[in-house]
Design brief:
The chain is of the alpha/beta class. It has five helices and five strands. The protein has a five-stranded mixed β-sheet. The radius of gyration is 20 Å and the shape is elongated.
């Protein structure tokens, strides 16, 4: 075990010097950029993709970032089963309020989508490789933001999101009472699509 710890302690993921500001993720930025660039150059995402929130089940004070990923499902047929395996093609560590800031107290790592709301900017950044393709991205409920889904449409990406009630509240623009009334007498497992126009 000690030998393994010594080996891991010697592994570097960057050959860049630390910046002048505090960057908790300096050691992995270069690796993540290389990962995203590799997939941008060598991989064409599927027609349907999935945008997920954190895959880190150990988030705590020592892990201040939220990991996001875009994936495409790949179907593999074996002699007995049809498998669905995701291929991750875009990764981002999303920092919160304690993100790296410069001497003017401005965030250091901005994207071209900063003029949008935070969640919409994140949706646009993560799906940038499939802009203007007409491909689909299915998102978890954290991305159930009408403005973001409409902005994805404007850049040629069809967005859809799981809608779920969080406690007593439905996401903004979701006709929660209508859905509650419609589903109250249905059997467990019943599913139906509700189509809504916003605007």
């Amino acid at each position: 075990m000690n030998r393994f710890i010594q080996i891991i302690a010697s592994v570097d993921y960057t050959n860049k010097p630390p910046p002048s500001f505090v960057d908790k993720f300096h050691n992995v930025h270069q690796m993540l950029d290389a990962f995203n660039k590799h997939y941008e150059d060598n991989y064409i995402p599927s027609w349907i993709n999935c945008l997920n929130e954190s895959m880190s089940f150990w988030l705590k004070q020592y892990c201040p970032g939220l990991c996001l990923s875009c994936k495409s499902p790949i179907h593999a047929v074996t002699n007995t089963t049809l498998l669905q395996m995701p291929i991750m093609w875009q990764v981002k560590l999303q920092e919160g309020k304690d993100c790296s800031k410069d001497a003017n107290n401005k965030p250091c790592f901005l994207t071209e989508f900063e003029s949008h709301t935070k969640t919409s900017a994140l949706m646009l950044y993560m799906t940038k490789p499939i802009n203007n393709t007409g491909k689909v991205v299915t998102m978890v409920s954290g991305f159930c933001v009408a403005a973001g889904i409409l902005e994805l449409h404007d850049v040629g990406v069809h967005g859809q999101s799981l809608i779920k009630k969080c406690g007593r509240f439905w996401p903004k623009h979701v006709p929660g009472q209508l859905i509650d009334d419609h589903m109250k007498d249905k059997e467990m497992g019943f599913a139906e699509t509700y189509k809504q126009s916003i605007g």
